[in-house]
Structures are given as structure tokens and as C-alpha cells.
Design goal:
By secondary structure, this protein is an all-alpha fold. The protein has five helices and no strands.
């Protein structure tokens, strides 16, 4: 199952790269906020289709109201990501946008792991992890130069 999870992560990385390029162009064509609404609407529609296909109905969808509201942050964070890449890509390029996005995700992931935020298992920040974050941040900064 770990191999499947890793494969999904690779697929998400590839899809994210395409998403950055496409959303930057789409925002330039119809407007940033309009592109955000279209992309989010497509995600909603396809997400419902996947839910119905996998669960044969709406599954436990209505149970979301029983979850703590902080768990709904995933939707807000997704909106921020799509809006940010739509704004950033035409201005700084796909590589810089992706580099900065990944560097930010790695730093936030390390903070979440370190303090066990959101109920995840605590994982310390070792020197190789810290070095990786520093190198990735340096790479993201260097990707800003053209």
C-alpha cells in the first residue's frame, strides 16, 4: 500500500505542475477569480462523481457536520493554493511558483510534524531534514532568476 501511496504522491506532483501552468494561462484568459470558480466547480463535480462511483451513493458525506470545523480547513487551503498559483505563474513562471509552493509545503509539513499539529504523529526535525528544507528554499529562491 505504501507503493500505491507514493505513486499517488508522484501523480499529484505531476498534476500540480500542469495545474500551475494551466491555471496561470486560464486566469489570464478569463480572469483570476473566474478561473478559480471554474476550477473549483470542476473539482466539486468530479469529486461527487468519484464519491458516487466508489461508494455507490453519497457515502458518509453528511457526517462532515459532526467533524470539528478546523477539519474543513482543507477546502480553504485548496482554494488558497489554486488562487495563488493562478496569480503567481504568469508573473514569476511555473518553475518558481512550483518551487516556492513546494518549499512552503515542506516547511509547513515539518512544523506540523514537529509539533504534532492536527493530531498527526510528532516527528522531530533532524539535521538532514533541516538541510533539505534549506536547500529546497535556496532552490526556490534561485528559480526566481530568469
Amino acid at each position: 500500500m505504501n507503493a500505491v501511496a507514493a505513486l499517488f504522491a508522484v501523480l499529484a506532483g505531476l498534476a500540480g505542475g500542469i495545474q500551475v501552468a494551466v491555471m496561470g494561462r486560464f486566469g489570464g484568459r478569463i480572469g483570476v477569480v473566474e478561473a478559480l470558480v471554474v476550477a473549483t466547480s470542476i473539482q466539486l463535480l468530479l469529486g461527487v462523481c468519484v464519491l458516487v462511483a466508489v461508494r455507490g451513493g453519497i457515502g458518509h458525506l453528511t457526517s462532515f457536520t459532526k467533524a470539528p470545523p478546523w477539519m474543513w480547513l482543507g477546502g480553504l487551503m485548496g482554494l488558497i493554493v489554486v488562487l495563488a498559483i493562478t496569480v503567481a505563474q504568469p508573473r514569476i513562471g511555473a518553475a518558481a511558483t512550483i518551487g516556492i509552493l513546494i518549499a512552503g509545503q515542506l516547511v509547513m509539513g515539518a512544523v506540523i510534524d514537529r509539533f504534532g499539529l492536527f493530531g498527526v504523529e510528532q516527528v522531530g526535525i533532524s539535521w538532514p531534514r533541516a538541510a533539505g528544507m534549506i536547500l529546497l528554499a535556496a532552490g526556490a529562491a534561485l528559480s526566481l532568476s530568469r
